[in-house]
Every structure is written in C-alpha cells, then in structure tokens.
Design a protein that fits this description.
single chain, alpha/beta, TIM Barrel, 2 domains, 8-stranded mixed barrel, 7-stranded antiparallel β-sheet, 44% helix, rod-shaped, binds ligand C2E, binds calcium ion, cyclic-guanylate-specific phosphodiesterase
Length: 521
C-alpha cells in the first residue's frame, strides 16, 4: 500500500516534473519568437519609410531644379533640360510643363494633352502640390505620384515604393502626408489590407508627414509549437529522462529500509513499551526497562531486533534513543515524580556510549522535569564497549551524576573479573540464555551461579532477565538475586498499562522496603 503510494507519487512527480519545465520552455521560446518577429517587422517598416523619404526628396529636388530655370517654356533648351534632369534623377520618371490646363511638353518633346489632376492632392513645404495614385491616359495601369511647382510637374512611378521582399505574410501600407494611401501596385496585384486585430502584429513608423504601417499575422502558440516540435524533442526527452531518473532514485531511497526508517523517525512512529522489573523477595515493582517499538501507521508493531542493527549502522539510533527518553518524560513523568523509588532503564547503543553524546541529551531532556537522575538507569551491552576508555569515561560521568548503570546481556560477551573491576558500573543483568537453563542438564546451567558470585564480589546489583517460570524465580530468590524481569511477571507494556500494573502491584505489595542506592564504590 505504502509502496504503491510512493511509486504513484513518484510517477506523478515525474509527469509534472517533465511537463512543467517543458511548457515553461515553450512559452518562453514563443515569447522570444514573437518579440523577434516584432523587431524584424519594425526594421522592415524603417527601411520602407527611409526609401519613401528618399524617393520624395529626389523628386522634389529635381522639380525644384527645373522650376528655378528661366528657360522659355517648351523651348528646345527647356525640353533638353527636362530630359537631363530626369535621366540624372534616381526616382523621377517624367517631367512636364503644364500651361493653360494642357501638358505642353515633357521629356519626350512637345505634347498637347489635357492635364488631369490626381484624385487627391495636398500642399507640401516649398509650395509643392503633391498628389498620389494618378493614372495617366498614357499608361493607365501605372499609378503615379505627382509633384507640381510653378507649371512644372514631376511624376514618380509608385511601384518604386514597393517594399523590399520581406516575410511573405508581411503587409506594408504607405501613407503620404494628409493620410493619402500610396498604392504601390496596380489593383489586380494589390494584397488585401491586413486586419489590425489581436491576431496581428502591427508596427507604425512616421516621419515628415509620411507614415508606414507594417502588419503580419502574430505567431500563435500552436504555430510555434508546430515549428518548435523538432527542436524541442531532444530537450523533452532529456528532461523526461532526468526527471524519471530522479523519481526512481527518490522512490528507491524512500522504499529502501533506511529510507523507511528515516521516514518513520520523522513521522514519530517509534514509541517505548515498559517491561516491569520486580524485587524478587517481595514481588514489588521497582521500575521498568524501556523497550522501543515501531508502530507502523497500519497499527503493525515491529520488534526492535529487526530495526535496531540498521538504526545503529545508519546513525538513526540517536533520534530513536531521544524518542525513548522523551516518551519516558511525557508518559511516566507523573509516576516517577510521585514515586521516587521507581526507576526506568534505557538501552544505550555503542555510539551513545563511546561518543558520550548521551550525556548532554539526558541533561537537556531531564532538566526541569522533576525526574531525578537515580530514577534513570542506563544499560549497555559488553559489545558496545568498543572504545573501553571512552566508554569508561561516559559511565563514570553518568555515575557521578547519580544515574545507575548496568551491563546488559551479561555473560554473553568477553567480560572477565579483571575487566569488570575497571568499569564504573552499578549492576549486571544476567542474560536470558543463562536463566533459561536453570534446573536443566545444560552445560551452561551453572553460569548464572558464577555471575551471581562475581557480582557479589564486586558489590554489584543483579537483575535476572527473561524469567518465565516460578522455578526460575525461586532459584534466583534462593541465591539472593534482588531483581528480575520476565514474562512471569509481565511483558513489555504500553505506558498506560504499565501505570495500571504499578497501581495493582502497589495495592498488593505496598511500597518497596528500601531505596535502591548506588552500589558501593
Ligand atoms: P534486551 O535489552 O536484552 O531486552 C530484553 C528483551 O528480552 C526484550 O526484547 C524483552 O521483550 C525480551 N524479554 C523480556 N522478558 C522476556 C521473557 O520472559 N521471555 C522472552 N522470550 N523474552 C523476554 P525486545 O523488546 O524485543 O528487545 C530486543 C532488544 O532490542 C533489546 O534486548 C535491546 O538490545 C534492543 N532494544 C530494545 N529497545 C531499545 C532501545 O530503546 N535502544 C536500544 N539501543 N536498543 C533497544
Ligand atoms: Ca536491555
Ligand atoms: Ca538484555
């Protein structure tokens, strides 16, 4: 269930993680493409406007030249001059002289055709009359711009204004002063005017009363997508692979035992259960050992031997120890403050002991709780004494603060008398394996006796672990073992059940007779 959820979330993340950057890339490149289109369109409009102004300036210059001569109109000299000026002008196609409403001569010589005015005319600086879209009888298909000054007219073929070849969908409109549209091609060649709406980019440029409007269809997002799809395919593939890889890596991490354990620590899935410790002589409960439990969200409880080794290897044991101490303070604080003879034993791991990390942790967590140091016992196995000197320093400091310390699973390690003498501990816990064989024919059946004798010699207290039968309890009682813990008395209980157990136990046996004091130095 949990795995499917992680995989589902990873897949969803993969899809989102691919789609979002891809869409962002697309939108961005579309915006950039639109901006580039607009800039290109602006450049085209600038060029067309520049060309337009040049043409007009050229025609104007030519006209001014001929109008300022004092030749006799239509004399051979005059006509030659008309011709020379036209040849030397880049834009002017014809120069003529009009008198009495008739064209009297032009570059081709004498003429006698009636003069017609262009459809619209405006006054320009220098006294020039300007008209556009004039079609002469002589060449009705050509549209001409006509400039008039003192009887002279200059004509310019309007196809000269035609825009240089731009984008095939670009439309250019040129307006002469007065807003007269200059038709650059005959009607049958003229493209329909582009609509100026949301779907079109429109750029307008103006100078000296002339203006140029350039229009082209705006690139739609879909068009851009279509154009960009091949360029985007490798990016999309790369992103998809990257995100998919990341999702796999993440889900692997989350699904790995280490990932699950780390997640469980964050989710506070670890709680302590408490196994009562009784005084054998009286049956009174004197405390408990805190044993950590992993309670999964589905209610399943996982035994510590399945996750403690992994927690130790990965360093997650530290937050776990902290959780146990926190649990004791919140769950059993009241009980411990009411009953000063009650203690709780905490299991330390090798790292807690060798680094001394447990010392500040305990100090901080117990400060202001009203729980006294002698009410917290600390257990460590012989296997956790990796660095004996540092372990000894930590044990000595715990002892100095008033905590009781015990060697857990005693007898399963390599401890000898000499070794034990050098360690500042207060108690030994005889391992369950030696209690199990009491009263049997097993070769290890006398180990418990030796441990008891050794503890006695060193003036250490003894706790027998894993007591399951009355016979075992009777044997231990006979050998003056003070404390025992085991299913005979109770299993590890949730906090409320342990508190209830203590209440019943007190009712039956009264308070413990003597305070558990520190072992003699
Ligand atoms: P341990 O410290 O030796 O704890 C005693 C174990 O023996 C507990 O197993 C307890 O439930 C079990 N036990 C007690 N009485 C009996 C009995 O009469 N019969 C039987 N068959 N078993 C009994 P548990 O709780 O599974 O803990 C296993 C080990 O996990 C502990 O061994 C201890 O080494 C470790 N552990 C538990 N809690 C912590 C913790 O908070 N921190 C650390 N570092 N280790 C812990
Ligand atoms: Ca223990
Ligand atoms: Ca033990």
């Amino acid at each position: 269930m949990r795995h499917w959820r992680v995989i589902g979330i990873a897949a969803l993340l993969a899809v989102i993680g691919t789609a979002v950057p891809l869409a962002a890339t697309l939108v961005l490149s579309w915006r950039m493409a639109t901006a580039a289109d607009e800039e290109r369109l602006g450049r085209t409009a600038d060029q067309v406007l520049g060309n337009t102004l040049d043409i007009y300036a050229d025609a104007e210059r030519t006209l001014q030249s001929i109008a300022s001569t004092d030749f006799e109109p239509c004399s051979p000299r005059h006509i030659r001059r008309l011709r020379d000026l036209t040849v030397n002008s880049l834009a002017t196609d014809n120069l003529s002289y009009v008198g009495g409403g008739t064209v009297q001569c032009n570059v081709w010589g004498l003429a006698e055709t009636p003069f017609t005015h262009p459809p619209a005319e405006v006054s320009m600086p220098g006294g020039i009359r300007l008209g556009v879209n004039f079609s002469s009888d002589f060449n009705p298909r050509r549209l001409m711009m006509v400039l008039g000054l003192r009887g002279h007219t200059a004509m310019v073929d309007q196809t000269r204004f035609a825009a240089p070849l731009g984008h095939p969908q670009t439309r250019i409109e040129i307006f002469a002063p007065g807003g007269m549209p200059v038709q650059t091609a005959p009607a049958y060649l003229r493209p329909a005017a582009a609509p100026a709406d949301e779907d079109h980019l429109v750029v307008r440029r103006e100078a000296n009363g002339w203006s140029v409007v350039a229009t082209r269809p705006r690139q739609s997002f879909l068009d851009h997508l279509d154009a960009a799809k091949y360029a985007l395919a490798p990016i999309a593939l790369f992103l998809a692979a990257l995100v998919a890889g990341l999702a796999v890596w993440l889900s692997r991490r989350r699904l790995s035992p280490r990932g699950e354990l780390a997640q469980a620590v964050r989710n506070r899935e670890f709680i302590a259960h408490y196994q009562p410790i009784v005084e054998l002589a009286t049956g009174r409960c004197v405390g408990a050992e805190a044993l950590v439990r992993w309670r999964r969200p589905d209610g399943q409880i996982i035994r510590p031997d399945l996750f403690i080794p992994l927690a130790e290897d990965t360093g997650l044991i530290h937050p776990l120890t902290d959780r146990v101490i926190e649990g004791i303070v919140t769950d059993l604080g009241d009980l411990l403050r009411r009953d000063r003879l009650m203690h709780i034993a905490i299991n330390l791991c090798a790292a807690d002991l060798n680094s001394g990390r447990i010392l500040p942790v305990l100090e901080r967590r117990l400060a202001g709780t009203g729980i006294e140091p002698q009410q917290i016992w600390l257990e460590a196995t012989e296997r956790s004494f990796v660095d004996i000197e540092r372990a000894r320093a930590t044990l000595a400091e715990l002892h100095r603060r008033g905590h009781m310390t015990a060697i857990d699973d005693f007898g399963t390690g390599y401890s000898g008398l000499k070794y034990l003498e050098r360690l500042p501990v207060d108690a030994l816990k005889i391992d369950k394996s030696f209690i199990d064989v009491i009263g049997t024919e097993a070769p290890t059946r006398h180990v418990a006796d030796h441990i008891i004798a050794m503890a006695r010699a060193l003036k250490l207290r003894i706790v027998a672990e894993g007591v399951e039968t009355h016979a075992q309890a009777a044997y231990l009682r006979r050998h003056k073992v003070e404390f025992a813990q085991g299913w005979l008395f109770a299993r590890a209980l949730p906090a409320e059940e342990f508190i209830a157990f203590c209440r019943h136990n007190r009712a039956a046996h009264g308070s413990p007779s003597n305070v558990i004091t520190l072992a003699a130095e």
